[in-house]
Amino acid sequence: MHDDSEANRQLQVYHALRQALLDGELQPGQRLKIRDLAEHYAASTMPVRAALQRLVAEGALRSAPQRSVQVPVLRREEYQQLLSVRLALEPMAAAQALPRLTPDERAALGALVQRMASALSQQDAAGYLRGNADFHLRLYRACGNPVLLRLIEGLWLQVGPVFTQLFNDQRLHAGLNAAHEAAWKALQADDSPALARAIHDDLADCGELLAHLLP
Asked: Which PANTHER family does UniProt cross-reference here (predicted)?
């Protein structure tokens, strides 16, 4: 029973940290200490250490001195390499997902586009980033291709923390939701090519902005 409890706690901590990476809640270069995380998640150090080791093995985190791990700091070239793969995979996943979306899933995606617009108008960077991750990954998870989804989520774990850089310049706020609104229109029209283009444009536009902000 104790082993089962520890395994469950490890899984809970893993998913919590994973979501924080996807949502951009963790900053590039941020150090994560086992004892601090154990206190934060009300867990012992063993499941926290195991969760961190799993994320290091997946490339989402990197080992650091003094029994800690670190959120990677991506250089411009590294980000552009990840982006080139995302540009190939994510529009494909979106197009495959469109005919499989349920009415409830479509409504949820529309609500997320509105939530992101509201977050931008309120200068709520964290809210926008959570909505952005939720919109993209909720859409892709309907694609019906677990291999494709696993690759995309692995890429998002690496790039999620970088998205915070978009809010270093207040002038970047206004147009961040335009491609999501185009994607929503394509969803409503059941237009797979238009949806794929909107997702491609979103990744490419953000990639161009980030390329000038990364070291």
From this structure: HTH-TYPE TRANSCRIPTIONAL REGULATOR MCBR, TRANSCRIPTIONAL REGULATOR, GNTR FAMILY
Q: What is the pTM of this model?
A: 0.85
> How far apart, in Å, are the Cα atoms of 116 and each of 25, 36, 130?
16, 31, 9
Is the Cα torsion angle 143, 148, 153, 159 positive or negative in sign?
Answer: negative
If one compares 197 and 212, the residue with the highest pLDDT of the two is 197
Name the percent of the chain in helix, strand, coil, to the closest 5: 75, 5, 20
Cβ neighbors of 201 (< 8 A, separation 6 or more) are 179, 182
Domains of the chain, first to last? 2-70 (1.10.10.10), 76-211 (1.20.120.530)
**If you compute the radius of gyration of the chain from its CA atoms, what whole number of angstroms results?**
18
Question: Which secondary-structure segment (H or E) carries 96?
Answer: helix 76-97
CA angle, 68 as apex, 64 and 74 as ends, to 5°?
Answer: 45
Q: What's the CA gap between 157 and 61, in Å, rounded?
A: 9
- Residue 30's closest CA among 42, 38, 21? 21
Residue in this structure with the two tokens 């609104």, named with its chain if needed: 181
- pLDDT tens for 187-209 read 999 999 999 999 999 999 988 88
